[in-house]
Design brief:
single chain, mainly alpha, 13 helices
Length: about 260
């Protein structure tokens, strides 16, 4: 059993205070102990149990029946009716904006969530920021309908990122460069207006595409970044609106004397 292995390795490192063993010390002892060499590393244990390392060590010292009860209770805490798809998308969008990135890892979210809660410690009402585990449970519910312990969790974080209009597949986050042509855009109408300009300047036979738009946008005094377009509905949706506007303008111009 995983927790039994954690308890045994922690006791090898510090028999008097196994709850005080660091992740680095645990990993070193695990690698040097033949019976425990197949145990996951400390970080992998925390990810598997969705618990901080300190709680893992504490739980490992408890009787098996108490461990099972605590873990079952934790699973129940992950299920929260107020964690809707819309709420998840909004929260991840806020975190991405605070960090200045176009994707958010689970570790980044957890760290920024703790920072936000600390900043709003005395705020009333308190911030409703779901835990990373609660988000993944909500996404399991959205993907599979009625999740249970055996429901796969693969793709749940990517789905959460999609709802926020962020990049998926856990790509390394990169800073969003702020500068000419990458200013903030308060509403989608302004984005569509720029896309109309982009479409109208295309030469005959040239189809609009995101890669070509990126090149064109860099040469403009002011043009929304693709991340901004995603926040306002996405490239395809806004481009379709721009095409509709171009057709309307051309039709109106054709009927004029």
């Amino acid at each position: 059993m995983l927790l039994r292995g954690v308890r045994e390795v922690a006791a090898l490192v510090n028999p008097d205070e196994p709850e005080a063993v660091t992740q680095r010390a645990f990993d070193a002892a695990r690698a040097n102990s033949a019976p425990h060499a197949t145990l996951p590393r400390a970080r992998q244990v925390t990810e598997r149990l969705n618990l901080p390392w300190a709680e893992v060590l504490e739980l490992a010292q408890l009787p098996v029946h108490t461990q099972q009860r605590r873990l079952s209770k934790k699973d129940g805490e992950e299920e929260q009716d107020w964690v809707s798809a819309e709420h998840v998308g909004a929260v991840l969008g806020i975190v991405a904006t605070r960090l200045g990135v176009n994707t958010v890892t689970q570790v980044q979210y957890t760290s920024e969530r703790e920072r936000m809660l600390a900043e709003n410690k005395r705020g009333k009402p308190p911030l409703l920021l779901p835990t990373e585990a609660q988000i993944r449970f909500a996404m399991r519910r959205e993907i599979h309908g009625d999740p249970h312990r055996a429901t796969p969790t693969k793709g749940t974080w990517d789905r959460a990122l999609e709802l926020a209009g962020l990049e998926t597949n856990q790509k390394p986050p990169r800073k969003v460069v702020a500068g000419p042509g990458y200013n903030k855009w308060p509403n989608p109408g302004e984005c569509v207006a720029v896309l109309v300009e982009y479409v109208e300047q295309l030469p005959p036979g040239q189809r609009a595409n995101a890669r070509h738009y990126r090149v064109w946008a860099r040469g403009q005094a002011r043009a929304p970044h693709e991340m901004t377009l995603r926040r306002h509905g996405g490239w395809s949706k806004l481009l379709a609106l721009a095409h509709e506007e171009v057709v309307r303008r051309r039709a109106g111009g054709a009927t004029q004397p």
